[in-house]
Description:
The chain is of the alpha+beta class. The chain has one domain (about 1-100): Aminopeptidase (3-Layer(aba) Sandwich).
Amino acid sequence: MWVRGYHAAAVQTCSSAGQVGFPKRDPAKLAVALANTHCTMWIRCTRGSRWARLGQLLGFARATSDKALTATIWDVAVRGLMHYSDLAHLVSHACIGAWLRA
């Protein structure tokens, strides 16, 4: 399941250590960074499996932009067991697609 945009619950998920390989960050600073980000994309598990629980965060990426010429993708992170599944590639391309449509 793709989730786009800033969500307060996602701040807690990302700031907790080791969820998707994202370094532990101060939740207040992370909330400010996400609120000032042009595009934020999340992938959550839609079916429970042996690799992930239902609703668990699988991947994350955010992009900043001047909304005219350039965009920079930051903080691409994917859950450890999913590193070899192209999720980082998909999240990055979802950010690029959202930026192009904006």
